């Protein structure tokens, strides 16, 4: 069931949409833009449901025939366009919107078209859609959902109401998970790597891949500290298996050393990300000085920068690992 109350965060956006309904200032075209999993589709769907509600209020009644049809996925006057293709082509736009919108609504007040991944539209598709956006019928509403609205033609952007959805705040995400069975110690870890996206957190929770990579990172850092040079080249080879995700892998490694540094500075504190691994962090913290931890963090950051600039993948990792190893073995037990 789609309701505004079920949406996490974005209170200001929701209030503005409701005010537009209340004051009869609903636009014929919208862009809902933000990172994946932040709630764009949920807001667009709930807004569309509200617009079609027979009670004509600022929230869906969830009881009328329109609301029931919407929740069942069989609303005759709301259309959802999506694609698994690399691009959303002109034929899809012409067939699903441009031609269809010429016919009046079947039963309800509006004909609403919700286009997911709309920023994948080709230039030809956007130009076709532009004709409809420029001269929409009184009953027509088009909602474009995107992760990068700058991919749209300037003429599309200028004719749409742009609704930008910011990443969710950590507090909003924590509140959402309070009533769930998720380990509270894991929430901060998920939040750190989610970018403020509930969708990303749910994906991490449903997949073992995230925690699997983290376990590799923890093992790699321990092996770097073992002093075995051959282990270093084994680690490099293993990291190469994650070439497509290397930025994420290095973020995990950076977070691990950051936690060690924070643990040394403040003991067990709320800023620790890997809260479920404090004992492991503590063991490493005992043998690394502040100076060496700082240099290790710098080495990881430098590798990330080099890889973003298309540096040699193997060489960048090799240099990073060697620098961390050098720093790791200038130990200072008294510095904790």
From TrEMBL:
GO biological process, one term: DNA-templated DNA replication
This protein's record includes keyword Transferase: yes
Entry-linked InterPro entries: DNA_pol3_clamp-load_cplx_C, DNA_pol_HolB, DNA_pol_III_delta_C, DNA_Rep/Repair_Clamp_Loader, P-loop_NTPase
Domain DNA polymerase III delta subunit C-terminal intervals: 243-325
Any GO MF annotation of the entry: DNA binding
Broad enzyme group: transferase
Catalytic activity: DNA(n) + a 2'-deoxyribonucleoside 5'-triphosphate = DNA(n+1) + diphosphate
EC numbers for this chain: 2.7.7.7
Pfam family, one: DNA_pol3_delta2
GO cellular component, one term: DNA polymerase III complex
Keywords: DNA replication, DNA-directed DNA polymerase, Nucleotidyltransferase, Transferase
Keyword Flavoprotein: no
Name of the featured protein: DNA polymerase III subunit delta'
């Amino acid at each position: 069931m789609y309701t505004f109350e079920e949406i996490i965060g974005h209170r200001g956006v929701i209030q503005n949409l409701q005010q537009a309904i209340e004051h009869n200032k609903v636009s014929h075209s919208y862009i809902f833009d933000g990172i994946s999993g932040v709630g764009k589709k949920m807001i667009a769907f709930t807004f569309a449901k509200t617009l079609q509600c027979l009670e004509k209020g600022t929230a869906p009644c969830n009881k009328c025939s329109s609301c029931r049809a919407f929740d069942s996925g069989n609303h005759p006057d709301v259309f959802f366009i999506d694609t698994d293709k690399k691009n959303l082509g002109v034929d899809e736009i012409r067939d699903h919107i441009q031609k269809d919108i010429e016919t009046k609504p079947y039963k309800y007040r509006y004909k609403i078209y919700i286009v997911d991944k709309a920023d994948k539209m080709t230039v030809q598709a956007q130009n076709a859609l532009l004709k409809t956006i420029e001269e929409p019928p009184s009953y027509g509403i088009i909602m474009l959902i995107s992760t990068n609205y700058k991919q749209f033609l300037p003429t599309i952007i200028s004719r749409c109401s742009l609704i930008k959805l910011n990443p969710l705040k950590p507090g909003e995400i924590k509140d959402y998970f309070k009533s769930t069975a998720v380990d509270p110690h894991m929430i901060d870890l998920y939040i750190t790597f989610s970018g403020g996206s509930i969708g990303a957190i749910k994906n991490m929770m449903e997949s073992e891949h995230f925690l699997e990579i983290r376990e590799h990172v923890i093992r790699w850092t321990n092996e770097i500290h073992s002093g075995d040079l051959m282990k270093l080249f084994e680690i490099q080879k293993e990291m190469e298996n994650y070439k497509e995700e290397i930025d994420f892998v290095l973020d995990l490694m950076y977070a691990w050393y950051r936690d060690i540094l924070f643990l040394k500075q403040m003991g067990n504190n709320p800023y620790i990300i890997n809260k479920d691994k404090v004992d492991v962090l503590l063991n490493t913290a005992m043998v690394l000085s502040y100076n060496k931890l700082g240099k290790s963090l710098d080495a990881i950051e430098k590798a990330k920068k080099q890889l973003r600039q298309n540096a040699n993948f193997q060489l960048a990792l090799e240099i990073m690992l060697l620098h961390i190893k050098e720093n790791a073995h200038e130990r200072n037990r008294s510095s904790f």
